[in-house]
Write a structure and sequence with these properties.
Pfam families: Erythro_esteras (PF05139). InterPro entries: Emycin_Estase, Hydrolase/PRTase-associated, UCP036794_erythomycin. It comes from Paenibacillus methanolicus. This is Erythromycin esterase-like protein. By secondary structure, this protein is α/β, with parallel strands linked by helices. The protein has two domains: about 1-65 and about 270-420, EreA-like (biosynthetic domain) (EreA/ChaN-like  fold); about 140-270. It is built from 16 helices and twelve strands. Strands 1, 2, 3, 4, 5, 6, 7, 8, 11 and 12 form a ten-stranded mixed β-sheet that branches. Strands 9-10 form a two-stranded antiparallel ribbon. The longest helix is centred in the middle third of the chain and has 23 residues, at about 220-240. The protein is globular and about 65 Å long.
Length: about 425
């Protein structure tokens, strides 16, 4: 049973999110923050995508935000960026731009919700130029091979002096046949030579020659960022073999660095919106992640840019359906999300009668300062075992600045979707 005092506080403080105008209050609450972190309790819930899109639209229109960084691969997301900015050689349609998401879990971005949002972004940019156009970028670390290939493509097309250096770096990974785990194991256990120095040297040289990169030459920025991805991906896959917090910390530190690089590229007054899982955007220090030695974007952004400049919004649900896989790499399917565990944060929101609404924690820290289980669903999901590992002990008012809740949610709509599983 949910804590009656907590339920009472939620009933008092919750504001509705049932009409378009209700989102304006969230944007007002953001205030002067330059970084807005928009979470999600799963990677496969339609409402999380559409509601983040509504908030993002208002931040672009009313607050002057122009950068959107999402939990996706840089090369694939850059195809959307090319399309919404009408770059030469971009895909003909939004669906065509999404075709680049071939890496599992492709449904995270190759879905109808993102297609619709990308079409809106293209229209938004249609009457703007240069730095006034919105850009969308992937800030994750997984695309080792793809990022190296994109770097070589750019260097070859521009007859750049770093081309031979980039080819040598890429060839270092050749024996591992695009198998990140095979490379990580070989490098971690000294079964082969690490390629770390090759990609680090390439990143250094590209940065030195392109320190003046700006949005007049975004393709050059693209090359530098792809090389940054390759350098950090090499470290990530090497650390992943050993287990522990290091690989996670490399990943979230990379995400934060990409945010900083993008803000630098857009200029001194740049503002950025981040779309990522709650486990990334909610301050790790307010969860048991800290006990494991883990950091995340929410923590690092507050430390690096100042807590006053960061506004983090968590998202959650009580029950519904979600897209996920039964195991890593498995076929995506719509699955049932069972009713939230008794005594959890989601249970309290449900008991308070919040159908679709939001809470502002700032100014109410004492009312939401107790640690409580808070549901997190990943790309791999087995609902029958949910209560044994899907609830993160969290101090909600320290983890987020605000929280959006939908009592019953629905699976997002990938291009191809399997029938709902019981």
């Amino acid at each position: 049973m949910a804590d009656p005092l907590l339920v009472q506080s939620i009933r008092r403080d919750a504001k509705p999110l049932t009409q378009a105008g209700d989102y304006d209050a969230i944007v007002d609450a953001v205030g002067d923050a330059r970084i807005v972190l928009l979470g999600e309790a799963s990677h496969g819930t339609s409402e999380f995508y559409t509601m983040r899109a509504e908030i993002t639209k208002r931040l672009l229109e009313r607050k002057g935000f122009r950068i959107i960084a999402v939990e996706g691969d840089w090369p694939s997301c850059y195809e959307i960026n090319r399309w919404i900015k009408n770059y030469t050689g971009a895909a003909a349609t939004a669906r065509g731009a999404l075709a680049g998401f071939g890496r599992w879990p492709e449904w995270m971005w190759a879905n109808e919700e993102i297609e619709t949002f990308a079409q809106w972004l293209k229209a938004f940019n249609g009457i703007r130029e240069g730095n006034d156009r919105a850009g969308i970028y992937g800030f994750d670390v997984y695309s080792l091979w793809e990022s190296m290939e994109e770097t070589i493509r750019y260097l070859r097309n521009t007859n750049s002096p770093e081309l031979d250096q980039a080819i040598r770096a890429y060839e270092c990974f050749g024996p591992y046949g695009r198998d990140e785990q095979a490379y990580g194991a070989a490098a971690a256990y000294a079964l082969g030579e690490s390629c770390e120095q090759e990609v680090v040297d390439l990143l250094r040289d590209l940065r030195m020659r392109r320190m003046g990169t700006n949005l007049k030459d975004e393709e050059s920025l693209n090359a530098v960022m792809n090389t940054l991805v390759a350098a950090d991906a090499e470290r990530y896959y090497r650390a992943m073999i050993h287990g522990g917090p290091d690989s996670w910390n490399i990943r979230d530190t990379h995400m934060t660095e990409v945010m900083a690089q993008l803000m630098n590229a857009y200029g001194d007054d740049a503002k950025i919106i981040v779309w990522a899982h709650n486990t990334h955007i909610g301050d790790a220090r307010a969860t048991d992640m800290a006990d494991e030695g883990m950091v995340n974007v929410g923590q690092l952004a507050r430390e690096r840019f100042g807590a006053e400049n960061v506004f983090a919004i968590g998202f959650g649900t009580y029950e519904g359906t979600v897209v996920a896989g039964r195991s890593w790499g498995a076929q995506a399917a719509a699955m049932r999300v069972p009713k939230a565990m008794e005594g959890s944060w989601e249970d309290a929101m449900h008991e308070a009668g919040v159908a679709s609404g939001w809470l502002l924690f700032r100014g109410r820290e004492s009312d939401y300062g107790e640690r409580i289980g808070h549901r997190a669903i990943g790309v791999v999901y087995q609902p029958q075992y949910e209560r044994f590992g899907n609830y993160v002990p969290s101090t909600m008012s320290a983890r987020y600045d605000a929280f959006v809740f939908v009592d019953r949610t629905n699976a997002l709509k990938p291009v191809v979707l399997e029938p709902v599983l019981s």
